[in-house]
Amino acid sequence: MTETDIRGDFPIFSQDPALVYLDNAATTQRPEIVLKAMDTFYRKGNANIHRGVYDLSARATDHYERARHTIAGFIGARSGENIGFTSGTTESVNIIARSFLAGRLSEGDNVVVNIAEHHANFIPWQQVCLETGAELRVASIDETGALNMTEFANLIDERTRMIAVAHISNTLGTIHPIDEIIALAHAVNAPVFIDAAQSAALYPLDVEKRHIDFLAFSGHKIFGPFGTGILYVSDKYRDQVGPYSVGGGMIRDVGRNATVFQSFPGNLEAGTANIAGVIGMEAAVVYLQGLDRNMLREKADAIAVEVRKGLSGIPGLHLIGQASNISSIISFDLEGVHPHDAATFLNAEGIAVRAGMHCTQPLLDSLGLAGTVRASFTIYNTVEEGEKLVEAVKKLHNFWA
Ligand SMILES: Cc1ncc(COP(=O)(O)O)c(C=O)c1O
């Protein structure tokens, strides 16, 4: 399949053929199949789930529950019972920090993260540590943007109660060695939370095979709708994840003085769910399952390699993140040009990139940077778009220098 075929799946590119969209790490575009799945649900299948005995509601419930199983298959989970629906990665991390970890932490315990984590996978752990007196241990990265694994290993000990790490750093593009981290964690019986926000679309997650304890991703970064996401919990911890938000739809029995809650994942989904969103997220997963994801990932990576080469020849341009194991996310800093000015200039050239801290302030502070310009490539991006970016950054440099 060529990228022309793939682009044809995304209505935004027929509406605006010249759009060079390189902000895929922030959110991806949606293919027709996803839009159609949600539209069809609202037009032909709309009903609330779990409560109705009539056919329309039963069909909506079946579809919603089927999505759990489809997504379980997509990430290599044993069953849909391991998949909770959330509003996204941020909520999934908060759920585990609050409803699993907080009650187990006390002074002398520690949680291990690293300096490059997205705020979503940093602040929730930081806050439970502050509240309980536990220590947040923050691993550093080396000059290429890779984790310093000797230091990382030394931070883990018998009192480590959680290790949280992104599969791929959203600012540096680094692919972290999660298998090695899981082995280190399990040696001291500590669970690992994998933030797969940047990897779920194109990387096999294999949660069961890799012995991942907790994992999260967001629907909108895998070509699905906003406001959707998942939380995977392994069988080992499934009955230890408590309710987070409480209310209707997640109970077994409610008395005047006490309530018995469903077990995971039912105990997470209080209130009316984002049913159309879950159906749209399932459609995105089915879409991805129909593509050769390995081939498409390699193509996006190959474009990124060429772009990095092109950019690195520009005087005063520094690539931020050059780890040997890197994805198709590229961050750079151009001396004397504020990232927002750079992104504004690129916008005038018809190129959409992100500029700023990318919700990784501890990382940017540690690098002494106010921000970076970030271009992120995915399945519908082309070699020509990569070349256009390099040419536009050269023009920016000539204009500013
Ligand atoms: C690595 C990583 N983690 C977490 C998030 C938060 O995702 P969401 O805003 O969809 O909850 C993002 C979003 O940019 C991310 O890149």
UniProtKB/TrEMBL annotation:
Residues 20-388 form the Aminotransferase class V domain. Its cofactor is pyridoxal 5'-phosphate. Pfam families: Aminotran_5. The keyword Transferase applies. CDD domains: SufS_like. GO terms for molecular function: cysteine desulfurase activity; pyridoxal phosphate binding. Its EC number is 2.8.1.7. InterPro entries: Aminotrans_V_dom, Aminotrans_V_PyrdxlP_BS, Cys_dSase_SufS, Cysteine_dSase, PyrdxlP-dep_Trfase, PyrdxlP-dep_Trfase_major, PyrdxlP-dep_Trfase_small. Gene3D superfamilies: Aspartate Aminotransferase, domain 1 (3.90.1150.10), Type I PLP-dependent aspartate aminotransferase-like (Major domain) (3.40.640.10). Keywords: Pyridoxal phosphate, Transferase. GO terms for biological process: cysteine metabolic process. It catalyses: (sulfur carrier)-H + L-cysteine = (sulfur carrier)-SH + L-alanine. The keyword Transferase applies. PANTHER family: CYSTEINE DESULFURASE, CYSTEINE DESULFURASE 1, CHLOROPLASTIC. Catalyzes the removal of elemental sulfur and selenium atoms from L-cysteine, L-cystine, L-selenocysteine, and L-selenocystine to produce L-alanine. Belongs to the class-V pyridoxal-phosphate-dependent aminotransferase family. Csd subfamily. This is Probable cysteine desulfurase. It comes from Fulvivirga sedimenti.
